[in-house]
Amino acid sequence: MSLVRLDHAGRLWALNTPHSTYVIGVAVAAGTDEVAVLQQYWGASLTPSAAREAAAMPAGPGNSSGAGRHETSFSRPAEIEELLPVDGGLRWGVPALQVTVDRVRSLELRFVRVDPVCEDDADRLDITLEDRAFPIEVVLHTRVYTDSDVIARWVTLRHRATRETAVKVSRLDSGSWFVPDAEDYRYRAVCGAWAEEGQLQQGRLPVGELTFTSRQGITGHHANPWIMIGGPDVGEEHGEVWSVALAWSGSWRMTTTRRPEGGTAVTAGFGHEGVRWTLPAGAELVTPMILGRYGADGFGGTSRGWHDHVRRRILPAGDEDRPVLYNSWEATGFEVTAPEQLSLARRAAALGAELFVVDDGWFGRRDDEHSSLGDWWPHRKRFPDGLRGLFDGVRALGMGAGLWVEPEAVSPDSDLYRVHPDWVLHLENRRRDRKRDQLVLNFARAEVRDWALEWLDRLVADLRLDYLKWDMNRPFTQAGWPDSGRSHDCVWIEHTRHIFHTMAALRDRHPGLRLEACAGGGGRLDLGILHYTDQAWPSDNTDPVDRQTTQHGVSQLYPANVMSTWVTDSPNANTGRSTPLRYRFHVAMAGVLGIGADLSRWSPEELEEAGAMVEQYKAVRRTIQHGRQYRLGGRPGVERSGLQYVLDDQVVVLVYNPRGNAKSGPRWLRLIGLDPDALYEVAAGGDPHGAPGRLAAASRWHGSTLMAVGVRPTAWEPIGADYRSDLILLRRIPG
Questions:
Q1: Is 360 a known ligand-binding residue?
Q2: Which domain holds residue 20?
Q3: I need a surface site. Which of 139, 208, 331, 366 has the fewest CB within 10 A?
Q4: Catalytic positions, written as ranges
Q5: Which DSSP symbol is given to 245?
Q6: Is there a domain that residue 546 lies in?
Q7: How far is residue 50 from each of residues 46, 67, 372, 553, measured CA to CA in Å?
Q8: What is the C-alpha separation between 612 and 593, in angstroms, rounded?
Q9: Count of domains in the chain?
Q10: What digits encode the pLDDT tens for the residues 573-612?
Q11: Does 466 map to a domain?
């Protein structure tokens, strides 16, 4: 059973996933009626009897004093175990809930009830609390799934007054997660910036508070809302890992606290410091989900668990194979015309592309980035007859039709802004700062949301589009809504929620439509936006060496079928680095393969090689996009490294060597996750035309040999050119 009551009073519960147990207890402070909802256990699966024993250990619901830890008159270590530590009472840590009622910034919550809720393929536990004096109700929701070790939590905050009372919410996190005591902790997260997103950050977790946040109104390039934490001996494929991720695409904050007395907790939610939300009488505020997962198979196993959950439980069409796309941006920039787009489409179709996407420059008077955002009709000089003829031609070539849009932005030089200057985020008596010569539309306004849905619906229907690339190229500034009669700070939440609403409504109206999330590169990639989109653009930097580090960071949480990965021209437009076409393809094959180069400049030999590589990718696409991923070798983009994917009987290994003249280092690449007793047949040794590689010396290998000894990739030879790569394909022999 997913939900198990462990006591007669119904205040101690075990929530079970396929491989873990999560125990929640409601503790009452001695001499008061104030309660704290505590995490009593989170780890490997326990029987009900064992879970009951775990809860009775020194910080059980009958003893919430943090027994076993050093406590003084200046500290109360037990607060770190609370599911939602409030601002009030004997707490001095990071509050997950901070509410001011009638100028009183403190909560004292008492127990109301526990409600177990059985759902079709998941079970939920709702714990309701209320303030002892003010009309404030708090519901802690926890959901467990039958097919995933990921646990979902969120919070509902209600103002139960029948008359207006001044209620201000300064902080409402989705929940706090306690990571059990350890001698030391190791963590993984990502940091970065535009064009260098997803840089893996790892090391010893310091004592104190480690905060990742975005104040930009989008997820942001410089951090991503997740963290993984393990003990001092954790590695890629061994050791316990507790991981937490927030499903939200606006501003956010995640704080990990390692207390000096022992123990660690992670709390996260929407918003950032400084914003306050007014909660009117009778209203409620519901947080986004915060997700947690425990696993005992290292950071790699943790990643695979998240990959499975994202494909099964988050993506709208997670089981679909993503098409090979061509995007025209790097070939044409803003110089978009029907003849040259059709010329590129013919070349892309000849390579095997299945989807053709027209990027920026097709609308209004869009000759550069200084005008026309908001004027979503075909450029009258470039497309005097509209876009239908272009996309009819694309479909005649056997490809789907896609288009770039930026619905949240407006150019001051646009018809839309001249008619509706009040539609942008702004504050009275303050300037309207521009970035990229554009402003942000206030999607918190229902009329803006409805306007966007109307023109997007019409655009998709009229052009019979299969795909939209939804971009967002600047952060919020002057984030206000003067004529709303409400707090300006509501826009930080409602903007994002209305983006979600628009995407969901658009998909409902066009079930075959697929969406890509983009925000100036990887500025909007998270578990919130992936509920409504199919893939995301990780970075505007398409240099394959830099992309290896970005994709390595992205792969920690997100599966390969959400990563849009392009082959572009060499030298690279961002870095000036020259790399072989083969290396560029093999890096892009680690996600959803796309091509974004100026094909009119490619030689016949390059076009022939590219066509063979696209064909090779299609033969292994399902395994890469849906298989179990293993990260092998050294640091991607820096040292010899590899990526392995396993699905059913197929094994795909992508091998990279950016520095060919490295005379020392590994010669053999050990594989992981194979059946040790099965035989594996080498189907391809790397050359896209089928020429044998090093593996052809033996046609069949035992899984145990491949895992104990490994394979010897040609690309790992100690002397040779820089930027060598290989694709190795093995098939398990039935029997």
A1: yes
A2: 3-314
A3: 208
A4: 471, 540
A5: E
A6: no
A7: 6, 20, 64, 37
A8: 13
A9: 2
A10: 999 999 999 999 999 999 999 999 999 999 999 999 999 9
A11: no
